[in-house]
Design a protein that fits this description.
Layout: E1 7-13, H1 20-34, E2 40-46, H2 53-59, E3 65-70, H3 77-87, E4 93-98, H4 107-117, E5 122-128, H5 135-149, E6 161-164, H6 165-172, H7 183-194, E7 198-205, H8 221-238, H9 240-243, E8 253-255, H10 270-286, H11 293-304, H12 315-329, H13 333-355, H14 360-368, H15 370-376, H16 379-384
Parallel strand pairs: 1-2, 1-4, 2-3, 5-7, 7-8
Antiparallel strand pairs: 4-6, 5-6
């Protein structure tokens, strides 16, 4: 990195030939508009693309200096981010954006970097999303981060971030730095525990190419669930001493405003989800001993017998299952995640059925209302660690 570069924008890519040029143009325009007097560097960290992404990135003209390289290490987004942070050492402010974005705007760069230059350590994004999107965020990461770590952010694994140079060094020095999808929750939770100022930036609508793979849960969402949940649960144990002292939920300053738009609905195959829930519960829970205990096991057994037309997965059952999975993760990580996975899908199916046809604002309110139950049961984790 040039010695004088004050701002670094890192772009993680993997087979982003269709989108990387547009992302780089938006980043470059954002830097030119908001920070014309600052020395800036764009770092493209590529995850072994085979579609010409690196060539297109290198050929895309930018006013800011640009570095295109293959990430150092194994495949995985976390490795890509580590490569960017290593290149950004010495920078005052760092922004991270995904290379498959189709909705990125130049204004995002100012929203991510300006709070850092004004003294914040971490900028977390907030997007306009349909309540049936964000399957891992809404029903697992959001309530756990708020209830256990006490950080009041709505989308802890949004993908776009602003970081201070100091926080970047803390991240690089943490042995828990993940290699794959868990990188986003690692950044947010470490920033929360680090104790610096956190800002939530309203970036608007987020659309990216990987969303198209959500229609086939086994292709992307299930592996992502295991990686994100595994990293989150590991962090609960890693930061257990700090977690015991958390009281309440810390308010986070918000900048920007979400546009008054109605996000596009997300298609959900309820019958497929219901069938998969019943199959996996029978295979992974009813056919072997688990950490759930007799009470939860009886409730889950009753859910398997429900037809789709009557299916409802109670929130208290879900919150307790999450917390018991967190405690079980220390000794049996694979079993904890394999057991929780079908319950997560069942809880999501129940939420879809409960909120189908509701206005977006009302469905969003029900997501936020989960916090009271997760906070009520948080003692299970704090006393069990």
């Amino acid at each position: 990195m040039p010695r004088e570069a004050e701002l670094v924008v890192g772009v993680c890519t993997k087979n982003c030939a269709a989108t990387v040029a547009g992302v780089l143009r938006a980043v470059d325009e954002g830097l030119a508009r908001a920070f014309p007097g600052r020395e800036a560097l764009i770092v493209v960290s590529d995850g072994f693309s085979i579609d010409g992404t690196r060539k297109i990135a290198a050929a895309t003209p930018t006013r800011a200096e640009k570095l295109v390289l293959t990430q150092r290490g194994a495949p995985g987004k976390g490795v890509g981010v580590r490569t960017i942070l290593e290149e950004a050492r010495g920078a005052e402010a760092i922004a991270l954006v995904d290379g498959d974005l189709t909705s990125i705007q130049p204004e995002w760069i100012e929203l991510l970097l300006s709070p850092i230059l004004a003294g914040a350590d971490l900028v977390v994004p907030q997007y306009l999303r349909h309540p049936h999107d964000g399957v891992i965020t809404n029903h697992l990461v959001y309530p756990v981060v708020n209830a256990l770590f006490g950080l009041g952010v709505r989308q802890p694994i949004g993908g776009e971030f602003g970081l201070s140079g100091g926080l970047a060094e803390v991240l690089l020095g943490n042995p828990a730095f993940p290699e794959k999808f868990g990188i986003d929750i690692f950044i947010t939770v470490t920033g929360a525990v680090h104790g610096g100022r956190v800002v939530e930036a309203a970036l608007g609508v987020k659309e990216h190419e990987s969303t198209k793979q959500y229609s086939d849960p086994e292709a992307l969402l299930v592996p992502m669930f295991h990686q994100v949940a595994g990293t989150l649960f590991s962090l609960v144990h890693h930061f257990r001493d700090q977690l015991r002292s958390v009281e309440g939920i810390r308010e986070v300053e918000q900048i920007g405003t979400l546009p008054p738009l109605e996000p596009a609905p997300v298609p959900v195959d309820e019958a497929r989800l219901h069938s998969r829930f019943r199959q996996l519960v029978r295979e992974r829970i009813l056919a072997r001993e688990t950490f759930l205990g007799d009470g939860l096991l009886r409730e889950v057994t009753g859910l398997v017998e429900l037809p789709l037309s009557e299916f409802e997965f109670p929130l208290p059952l879900w919150a307790e299952a999450v917390y018991r999975a967190i405690l079980a993760y220390r000794d049996s990580p694979q079993e904890a995640l394999e057991t929780l996975e079908p319950l997560w899908q069942g809880r999501y199916l129940s939420f879809v059925r409960e909120t189908k046809g509701l206005p977006v604002a009302e469905a969003e309110a029900r997501i936020r209302d989960q916090l009271s139950e997760f906070r009520r049961q948080a003692h299970l984790v704090r006393e069990g660690l």
